[in-house]
Amino acid sequence: MTTKTFVMYPSLGVGHLNPMVELAKHLRRRGLGVVVAVIDPPNNDAVSADAMARLAAANPSIMFRLLPAPASPDVGAHPIKRSHGTLKLANPVLREFLRSLPADRGMVVKNWVPQAEVVQHEAVGAFVTHCGWNSTLEAIMSVLPMICWPLYAEQAMNKVIMVEEMKIAVSLDGYEEGGLVKAEEVEAKVRLVMETEEGRKLREKLVETRDMALDAITEGGSSEMAFDMFMRDLEESSLENGVRS
Known about the structure:
CATH architecture of the largest domain: 3-Layer(aba) Sandwich
Radius of gyration: 22 Å
Strand content: 5-15%
Low-confidence stretches: none
Strand order of the largest sheet: 3-2-1-4
């Protein structure tokens, strides 16, 4: 009987590679073959290269395949735009790699998982997050402790709000010194939020925050009032500037 093989193709960056490898480990435990295909890090990205080397050494049952780097996109572009450009340019390389696999063994994982359902599941005890605001709101409504690992854009600001002001999350150490967080640090923070008194207090604060969020979206709540105020200010500003709706 032929073993099915999953081919995984994470987006650029350590933050996308790590969870893909965790999924690969679960698939391997179920007897499935896994290949993690990664684009050769562009622009001499030593952090990504080091992370891949560590992950490959720690997971010998998973096949890691380094795909040749495509021609670099505009190096002056925004990092997100440059990353998307690299992925687009690498598509022909990926297609060629997939064609080299046995026809009855390839399976590409390309769809998004239903994250809102995942964070609400009773088996999930903590959430390592890059601090995007949608993920933050989903975790709050699920009363799920967050472990922050911001990467770019507004994520660092969100982390400060969550950890220092709202006190509903803890922060990982190490990402600011080069982007690579050690496994021991992740384990320590997971144990902190799940097994300690500090973690219990954090969950209590999350319950309070969740209840405040629910109150805010009720009729007459602060969210509705703030939106009404915004609309009034917008109308007044339009009238002052001679703009009619």
